[in-house]
Specification:
With 411 residues, the chain is an alpha/beta fold. The protein is built from 18 helices and eleven strands. Helix 8 crosses helix 14.
């Protein structure tokens, strides 16, 4: 079993928090990780995907929780939303840390039945598909390094061709997909995955009937990767009412299939776009939805740059889960179309801007958005980074740096 870097954060949370929830999309490896924790701590492991167990949990939540012992792992807790009140009551009687470790494949905070949950009693940790550093047995410190006062000198990197980078983007990070070398078998997995999510999770957490259009909505979002989320355009294209489309996109976000990137805002500038950007949770999945069958098609496709941007956003989200520097991710765009692909803002309000380029060559024109963001950030500005498909690490001025994209996982 490959070590998941998020495991360290889970262990720390269990040491001082009564309830820890690990949530994220299905098939990202949550169950495998928490089973290992249950085994090592000699705790109970309960799966609510089991119908008999689920029936007990639904019909007698207090009795179900009372019988779990000193430490229990409850897998797929969103299947029994009424358990949250029973867990809350149990924790209020005994606030000892590390009593419950939960997993969920739906964002429990956006589900009405779970709104009265465990505030002040629970820590939530998101688990994503594999990050590139995890696949290499490393823990990236990229985010920590780019927020340092002085940017460290990058280590030498092995050249990564456009085709090799396309292979990483098109493979994504779902464990099951990475274990399948045959493209047809990967496609079969994605098809089954979509069916499972839409027929089980989405139907379970929604009151919407007739979900046949959801796969089309998901594909439409994949085709718009790294673009602004224009629901009016999607509504016209798919002939789906705007109100219905909004409910669909909310469901896709609740099941972690779509993870939009919010716009960065500051009181210094009023004319900033507020619309989020479209990014799916996994670029391998996005390639499948776009009909891109493998890296050879991707690196020749006009979507390569857009999907590469989504790939970088996803990697940064993953790395942020084990970085010492706590950051929020945004994008930057003005009404005059000055833009920066990713804005990282730390807990002190300090800002690092990141541009993503599919080419190996970078020039001063590529820094236009970063200079605009620098002016908007003012004294909170740290530096700008251009991640490119080359091998050279160079500096343009004191606070603008060009780095190979593989610095994300090699630093």
């Amino acid at each position: 079993m490959k070590q998941r870097n998020i495991r360290h954060a889970v262990d720390i949370a269990l040491a001082d928090t009564p309830v820890v929830l690990v949530n994220g999309a299905r098939q990202t490896g949550k169950t495998t990780m928490v089973q290992d924790i249950a085994r090592k701590q000699k705790g109970a492991f309960i799966s609510l995907d089991d119908h008999t167990t689920l029936d007990f949990a639904l019909n007698d939540p207090p009795g179900f929780i009372a019988g779990l012992g000193r430490f229990a792992v409850i897998d797929e807790v969103q299947n029994a939303p009424n358990l949250f009140r029973a867990i809350k009551a149990s924790v209020d009687k005994d606030r000892k840390p590390g009593r419950f470790l939960l997993t969920g494949s739906a964002n429990v905070l956006v589900l009405p039945k779970m709104a009265d949950s465990l505030a002040g009693r629970m820590e939530i940790i998101t688990m994503h598909p594999f990050a590139m550093d995890e696949l290499r047995g490393r823990r990236s410190s990229f985010i920590d390094k780019i927020f340092q006062a002085r940017l460290p000198k990058p280590t030498s990197t092995k050249p990564l061709s456009r085709a090799q980078l396309a292979a990483l983007v098109s493979s994504g990070g779902y464990p099951e997909v990475l274990g399948r070398k045959d493209r047809a078998r990967r496609s079969a997995w994605y098809r089954a995955y979509i069916t499972t999510i839409l027929q089980r999770d989405v139907r379970d957490i929604s009151n919407i009937s007739g979900l046949t259009e959801l796969p089309k909505v998901l594909s439409a979002l994949a085709e718009r990767s790294s673009g602004l989320l224009n629901l009016a355009d999607v509504s016209r294209t798919l002939h789906v009412p705007h109100s219905t489309l909004r409910r669909y996109t909310d469901l896709l976000e609740a099941t972690f299939l779509s993870t939009p990137l919010p716009a960065w805002r500051t009181h210094r500038i009023s004319r900033l776009m507020k619309t989020p950007k479209v990014h799916l949770e996994d670029t391998g999945f996005a390639c499948h939805l776009c009909g891109i069958d493998g890296p050879d098609q991707l690196h020749k496709s006009n979507r390569f740059g857009h999907l590469l941007e989504s790939f970088v956003v996803n990697e940064l989200r993953k790395i942020s889960g084990w970085s010492r520097t706590v950051v929020d991710l945004h994008h930057y765009r003005t009404e005059k179309n000055k833009e920066v692909d990713v804005v990282l803002e730390d807990s002190k309000g300090r800002v690092v801007g990141i541009e993503v380029k599919a080419s190996a060559a970078v020039n001063h024109h590529d820094l236009g958005g970063l200079h605009d963001l620098k002016e908007a950030a003012g004294e909170k500005w740290v530096r700008g980074i251009v991640l490119h498909n080359g091998t050279e690490a160079t500096t343009m001025g004191n606070d603008m740096h060009m780095l190979p994209v593989q610095s994300l996982w090699e630093w």
